[in-house]
Amino acid sequence: MNFKKRTYWLFLLPTLFALLVVLIIPFFQGVYYSFTSYDGFQVSSFIGLENYKNLFSDEQFLYSLGFTAAFSVVSVIGINVLGLSFALLVTQKLGKVSTLFRTIYFMPNLIGGIILGFIWQFVFLKAFTGIADLTGIEFFRGWLSDTQTGFWGLVILFVWQMSGYIMVIYISFLNNVPKELLEAATIDGANRWQNFWKVKFPLIIPAFTVSLFLTLSNAFKVYDQNMALTSGGPFGSTEMATMNIYDTAFKVQEMGYAQAKAIVFLIIITLISVIQLQITRRKETEL
After folding, report:
1. Which 3 state secondary structure label does DSSP give 87?
2. pLDDT tens-digit profile of 42-78?
3. What is residue 260's three-state secondary structure?
4. Are 83 and 174 in contact (CB under 8 A)?
5. How far apart are CA 134 and CA 111, in angstroms?
């Protein structure tokens, strides 16, 4: 083995070892535990598919899956529309103001999810209540104590956090659009909307592939924002799938059952992500 190959394996082996210890071994342990009655300390019995049968009759888990799906769809649309809008705004010739806007829009992404949850909890509980007291508009009162407004509160929080990050992805693709094409379209009589839809949009389709994948996967994995903002309340009506799995594992101490839920949730996320990637990549090819 020559020096180049020895160096290659010298740098690669620590990474492979870390993946094996942190990801691969725990994954297969989790798969095994999903077929057992496991309380986090010991396996009392091997029960086969019993955990998987039970979760399909678990109303709260099924509800949390539906809630998570609805949250993900609305959030993904909101984040990508807002992120693209921000990107179009800051790529205009605004000078130093453009840099300021980029910083402002990206800053929420630098704040941790738990802190964000508490910030928006203050906004919804204190600021909104203050507005309701001053104006008499009851729309602003009790946002986190209602199922529908609690849902929209979570959406607002997540969209506010992720839009700036997705904006950066769209900016990188918009900056690579050849100016010659835009100038030629303008000379041919294209207005701003036609310039965007006929010239820019087809060239930034790959950005949608990346952005949709990131927003979709992150939306399904939301936990800390959910915990800090609503804790799943009222009465579990805003409980997302990740929180349901966590509570099953660490509050009820049914680790085996929680692992079965996690495996099913992983399969759902994987299938949705693969389908999304296939659809958007096909669209790239068509355009």
Report:
1. helix
2. 888 889 899 999 988 899 999 999 999 999 999 999 9
3. helix
4. no
5. 30
Residue 72's closest CA among 218, 254, 252?
Answer: 218
Distance separating alpha carbons of residues 245 and 173, to the nearest angstrom: 37
The two structure tokens encoding residue 123 = 């906004």
Biggest CA pair distance of the chain: 79
Phi-psi region of 231 (alpha: psi -120 to 50; beta: other; left: phi over 0): left
| CATH node for 62-286 | 1.10.3720.10
CA distance 161 to 111: 8
CA–CA separation, 107 vs 130, rounded Å? Answer: 26
Quickly state the pLDDT bin for 1 (edges 50, 70, 90).
Answer: low
> Helix (H) and strand (E) counts for the chain?
15, 2
| Site of tokens 């160096």 | 7
Query: Which residues share a beta bridge with 46?
Result: 36
> Rounded CA gap, 93 and 187, in Å?
19
> Which residues, in sequence order, are CB contacts of 31 under 8 Å at separation 6+?
259, 263
Instruction: Give this prediction's pTM.
Output: 0.86
Q: Are 64 and 243 in contact (CB under 8 A)?
A: yes
- Per cent of the chain over pLDDT 90 is 33
Predicted confidence (pLDDT) per residue in 151-201, tens digit: 999 999 999 999 999 999 998 888 888 888 877 878 877 777 878 888 888
Average of per-residue pLDDT across 224-242: 88
